[in-house]
Every structure is written in C-alpha cells, then in structure tokens.
Amino acid sequence: MEPILQTFLVTGLTLLCFIFEWLPPDITALGVMVVLMLLELVTPAEGLSGFSNSATITVMAMFILSSGIARTGAIQMASEFLLKWGGKRPARHMLVMGAVIGPFTAIINNVAIVSVFLPVVEDWSRQRRIPVSKLMMPLSYITILGGMITVLGTSTSVLASGLSADLGLGAFSIFQFTALSLCTFAAGLIYMATIGHRLLPNRKTSTSLSQGYGLKDYVSEVVITPQSNLVGRTVRSSQIQRVFDVDILELIHDDNHFPQPLADKTLSAGDILIVRGGREDLLKIRDGQGLEILPDVQFGQKSWQADLRSGQEGAAEAMILADSNLIGSTIKDIRFRQRYNCTVLAIRRGQELVRDRLGKVPLRFGDLLLVQGPKQSLAGLQTSKELLVMEQRDIENLRRDKAWIAIAIGLFVVGVAGTQRFPIAVTAMSGVMLMVLTGCLKPGELYRAVRWDVVFLLAGLFPLGIAMKNSGATQLLANQLIAVGGDLSGYGLLTLFFVLTALLTEILSNNATVLLLLPVAVQVAQELDYNPLAFMFVVTFAASNSFMTPIGYQTNTMVYGTGGYRFLDFLRVGGPLSVLMTLITPPLIILLYGL
C-alpha cells in the first residue's frame, strides 16, 4: 500500500476516534504514534520526537507556572476585585470580567483560570441574585479570547509556534500576535457586553441544591419495622447498598442523627433511614426487607432536607476535572463512598440529570456531582486533584505571602521571552526553577501541576504531522485546496482556512486541528506566494476561538453543567461571536502582518 494512502487511513481513523471518543484523546494520540512507527511511516526517532519538542516542553512549563501563580492566591486577589466591582448591569459584568480575567489569561493556562473563577462567579451570582447562566459562558469566552494575547496563553499557540519552527519559518516571539489578539479580545468583549448577554438564557438561578437537582422524588425516609430482617444487623452486613441502587445518607435512632460513615451501625426496629434511590428500588426494599416508606419526605421541614445541610453534614457540587483519574470509571468502580466518605446523590451533565443507577454511569470530564457527607469530608474534597468543589476555597492553605513573588516570576518569564534573547522554552523552564527556589511551589507539586493528558496528546500527534509531510499527504491536500480556492483572493483564502479550522476544531481538539491544518496552510501560502505567517495566524486563531459547542474547548465543557446550559445555547450565543471573529480576523491579519 502506498505510504500516502496509509497516512490518510491512519489520519481518518484518528479523526473518527476523536469524534466518537472511542478512547481518551491522549491514548488515541499515543496509539497513532505507535501505529505510524510500526508501519514505518516515521522512524523511531521521528515517532518519539514529540516528547523532546520545544513546544511540548514549553506547555509542561506553563502548566507549572500557572499552578505556582494559582497556589499563591494571586488569582484569588483578582477574584476579590471582581466581587467588589462587578456591579449589577450586564454590560458592566462583561467589562469587569474582561478587565479582571483578561490579563491573567495572557500568561496562565485558561483551564486553570476557569477552575479558580468558577466558584467565584457562582458566589457572585448568589450575592447579586444574577442567574448563573448569565455569567458562566462569558467566563469561558473571555478566557478563550484572552488566552491569545501572548504565545504562552494557550497550548495551541505554543504548539503553533513549535510547528512554525519545525517548518523552517522560526518560532513565534511571545508578543508575535498581541496586537491582533487585543483587537479580537476587545471585539469579543464588546459583543458580549452589547448583544451576547441578551442571547444568554435566564435559566439556572441560585435555588437550593435539592431543588436544583430535583431530589424530592429521589431522597426518601424509610422506617425499619419490627418484622424487618435488617433488625440486629449492621449496615455493612445487610448489603442493602450493594444489592439495591440506594445510598444510606443518615440514620435516625431515638431522635439521634448519625451521619456517615454508617457501615458498622447496628439497625433496630423503629430506626429511620434517609436514603437516595429511585421509587422502583424503594418498593423492592419495602417488599424484600420489611421496611415502610414514609409518605412525605418533608423537604423544607428539616434543614438538611431543604438544603442538604445540617450541623455536621453538608452538601456540595464537585466537578470532574480534565485530568482526573475518575474519568471513564463509575462511582461503584472507584468505591466513591469509601474513598471520600461522601455519597453522590446525582450527576449533572449539561442539562441532563442522572439520579438513578448512579453506580453504573461512567464519569466524564465536566460532570457535576452533587455529593453529601460530613463537612470535614467535603473539606477534604477541596484538596483533591480529581475534583473541583464549587465553593470558595477558604480553607485551602494558599501561600499568599508568595503571591507577588509568583506574579513577578510570571512577568519575568514574559519580559525575558519578549527580548527574544532566549527561546521561550528556556525562559519558561527558568520560571519553573524560580517557582521552586522561592517556595511558591514545592518540588513534589511540579508533577501534579502538569496536565499529562495534554502533554501526551501533543507528543503523540507530532509524528502524524511528520508522516503527512514525508508521505506527500500535506502536499496533496494543499494542491486540492489550491484547486478549490485558486480563484479566491488572498483574503478569500484566509477566510476559507478560518472557517475550515473553526468547524474542525468544534469536533476535534484544538491542538489536533492545528497539527493537521497548519502545515497545509503554510504549503498553500508558499505555493501561491503569500505570507506564510498570515496563514499560520489564521489557523491558530480559528483553532483557539471555539465558541459554538460545549465540547470544542475545555473551558466550554467546564461551564456547561454549572451554567445549566443546553447544547444549542452555545450555538445561539457563540455562533454570532464566531461569525464576528471570521469577519474581522482575516482583514486584521492582512492589515497588521501583510499578505
């Protein structure tokens, strides 16, 4: 089989894996790397070159720098300003968010920014009685737009810079497209302040958690009758939680309330169990275990049932993070209750609510878990790298005395990189060392700060770009695009690449889109004697500006459930913004950098 055909088959299979999510993206990328080496479409050195590429190293360093700034509480200082000056008018909301969040996104990974500001924005929504759906999508869009202010803002621009160097055109300088990005950032902010906020749904208000998750029909009180076969047995030996899809949240014995853990509690006649479970399972328990279901769950009559909060008990929302080890596993597989001493009451996935058969639902990035348990256990969740608790992290031991040091290190990295005296990878790694030496980060925290899924995704996909170039696939695609768009002007071709990239990045990862299309764009530019830089910029910006779906960009996925959005909400608000970016970015590139 011809190498070019083999390359297209591997590329096609890769795209299908990304679209249908048969495997996690990073595992797909590693599989592509292995297949390309086995087919001898790349040499072993070329296949492994992604791990030593300067772009991969820079992305690793930027994750660590972002973590250092976050761990010192520097971002929390900005959040306090947001809460103080956010105001009540929608236009002011957008402008203040842009002013506060925008500068941070220039040097801090936007996923890290959203992780910190999600609880802040929820608190802001609660204080000002603003529907949270009016704030979450703008938060994501602002970080996406602001992330392009410098090359260090997103892994996509770092990757594009590395590809530019590999193509013999030199790496980007740190402020290479700052003028362009400031224009697009301002245009996006004006859109959100004038038109976008009117298109946002007025949907999820700050109701109690029990109401927000519709738990009235899924949390019940059952009484152990004298005839029950549970009398005299412990909760663990009864295996009621293993046999049926229920969770025991609380045990009431002689008016004494016993919260989790309950495994060793002995059950007696007259005990009341507060359980989470569907009506079908409750009826099975009633018939098989001799229990009586109380007719009224009494939401609103007992404080914990009204808000799922009582003295030592509490409830909170926790989001599955992008690099969480929980992704792909079920609550039952990971023994969530035993691991965290908390019970999952419901799962929110966008507008979808899962309250039945929770133990059999594979967890995904962006899922919101409604968890209930001792407040001490909920506090422990706040320190977990697997979950983001949607509350302000007041208890977290932030190194606030190091905040200005961390900010200074970030500015140092940007400043030195701006002089172009050293490559960006070198200055970024210097910043990493300074973070450790100054105590902003502990040595062991370096490895936990890195998003290894992104690193392996980048390293695994690099060989695909090499295979496409070596086999002639890049040249063939470029020729086809030239044939299709040969009669277009330079502006028309730039717009064509913007639209093609923007559509592809909505179904693939933005990094994968850049790896596939940027070499083709450069080839087209060189064939038609245009400025390759202009074509690289249009692909980079289009890949980064993903607004139309909740799955095209990770920050969109993060706000999907917390804002209570529907899938089409992103198209309604993000579609016009994407059109705006399509209309202004190509002419701005021509004006600022030439064609």
Structure in words:
The protein has 595 residues and is of the alpha+beta class. Among the domains are: 55-206 and 402-451, no CATH class; 217-298, Alpha-Beta Plaits; 313-389, Regulator of K+ conductance, C-terminal domain (Alpha-Beta Plaits). 57% of the residues lie in helices and 9% in strands. The protein has helices at residues 3-20, 25-38, 44-47, 54-71, 74-85, 90-105, 110-128, 136-146, 155-166, 178-199, 209-212, 235-238, 240-243, 279-289, 303-307, 336-340, 375-381, 403-419, 424-437, 445-449, 452-471, 473-485, 490-507, 510-527, 532-544, 554-562, 567-593, and strands at residues 219-224, 246-253, 256-258, 272-277, 291-293, 313-320, 343-349, 352-354, 368-374, 387-389. α18 (403-419) packs antiparallel against α19 (424-437) and α21 runs parallel beside α24 (510-527). The two termini are 39 Å apart.
List the helices and strands and how they pair.
Blueprint: H1 3-20, H2 25-38, H3 44-47, H4 54-71, H5 74-85, H6 90-105, H7 110-128, H8 136-146, H9 155-166, H10 178-199, H11 209-212, E1 219-224, H12 235-238, H13 240-243, E2 246-253, E3 256-258, E4 272-277, H14 279-289, E5 291-293, H15 303-307, E6 313-320, H16 336-340, E7 343-349, E8 352-354, E9 368-374, H17 375-381, E10 387-389, H18 403-419, H19 424-437, H20 445-449, H21 452-471, H22 473-485, H23 490-507, H24 510-527, H25 532-544, H26 554-562, H27 567-593
Antiparallel strand pairs: 1-4, 1-5, 2-3, 2-4, 6-9, 6-10, 7-8, 7-9
Helix pairs in contact: 1-2, 1-21, 2-21, 4-9, 4-18, 4-19, 4-21, 5-6, 5-7, 6-8, 6-10, 7-8, 7-26, 8-10, 8-26, 9-24, 9-25, 10-27, 18-19, 21-24, 22-24, 23-24, 23-25, 23-27, 24-25, 25-27
